[in-house]
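Recap for those who missed Tuesday's class. We walked through two folding examples back to back. For each one, the amino acid string is listed first and its predicted structure tokens come directly after. Nothing is annotated here on purpose, so try labeling regions yourself before you check the end of the notes.
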Amino acid sequence: MQRAFVVSTITGVLCAVIGVYVVLRGMAFIGAGIAHASFGGVALGLLIGINPFFTAIVFCIFTAWGIGLISEKKRVKEDTAVGIFFASTMALGVLLIGFLKGYNMVVFGYIFGNILAVSSFDVWTSISLALIVIFIILFYFKEFLFITFDIEMATVTGLPVRALNFLMLTLIALTIVISIKSVGIVLVSALIVTPAAAAYQLTDNFKSMMLLSILIGIFSSWIGLIFSALFDIASGATIVLTATAFFFICFFCSPQRRKLLKRMKNQRNMINN
């Protein structure tokens, strides 16, 4: 449980931070595509006897770069490129899993998450990679902020937009690989998107959104982990459903939504009068 709490905290923070950029830049489908691509890496690692963590990193990064390269040519739309890599890497994973003898619980853990089975190696590897990701985000904070809100102006001012885009794709890939042991390949994209989307309901300030997203990510991970341990249910699914509950709470408590409802009520009163 101690290791699980450490990893869940790392996952909650990292997914929340990266998720803000993913939500604001409309990259949710890319996150889902990269997440499912990790299945091919996990299957390859199990087949050749290498830690799936490392093969998943390589697979996810190359998939992210492949999506970026194909979609930037404008001959293929971004969602089409994601769909191609999404399907092909999953198919490769299924093919490679077929060569394994018997039923492998490790595969099941990677697909659906098994945070209570994390090892000390998983903890230290997650901490190391998370620190690298956070350091890069802090170092390029202004640049990432610029291309998030005005990529055309960033290009005109001479920022290396293409390199920054590929760096962001790499950070998304690393975040996904760190998180799949906690919530699984199937659900990791939801944990990236949901806390940030929930925070977006409450504020339009970037730094406030980042902070709220982190808090929602952490509390979702903690509450989900506690419930999964108490009721002996799937940890990854519980964490994601907790984050989803936070989203709906934020959605119905949204200041913008309250203003809209108040405006509609006033208009209705004017019509009645």
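Example two. Treat it independently of the first, because the proteins are unrelated.
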Amino acid sequence: MRKTVIILAILSAHVLSCSFVLAQRDSIKMVEYDLSYNFQDGVYLNFQQFRMNAPVSFSSTDLPDPASKSPGDALLSARKLSFFDGYGIKQFVPIDSIWGYAYNNKIYIYWAGNFHLIPYIGNISHFVAKVQVRYDNRTDPFYDPYYVYTGPSSYVTNQTVQMLLDTETGKMYNFEPEHVRHLIKDNPDLYKAYLDLSKRKHRKLMFYYIRQYNEKQPIHFPAD
């Protein structure tokens, strides 16, 4: 019973913390993002901490000095991260629940079992990731019922994929025309111009329209 109460208390504190962070966005000064913006070093436990530029500092965690070992490598080699919260209480979170981290003014997001640099940040952000894809080697029995495959049942290969991050909501999308259309639809002029393109140009000009959207509707972060 005591253990259950402690767990519920921790969960309640986490919910209140997230609510407080969201409330802060309505009460503090926000500035338009550009390449001169300074992201604080540390670990983002959730998307809200990224949007508020309020990570858990590396010095509050059990991670080694980032100058001696990459935070991404250190996080991936650990089963869980321990850190001291704002009340000085030691907390533990599994690595796969972490949103990402910031180091040397660069943002890294955790996705598909690894940390990936987000080199292009805007209302619609873009990053490239390498992921493992498993393929089935077995022959379709309806095609050749007399053939018995005796090799490995599957194999794994690395593939490079492009991803989009809606930096206002935290949702992620594959880099595909239908997702670009969805993300820019609240700008009627850009949306119509994109719809009027040929199918070939829909794919060819995806990044161009993302840039246009971000220039017209810039993202904002808390002032330093």
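Answers for example two:
Residues 32-117 form one domain.
The first strand starts at residue 30 and ends at 32.
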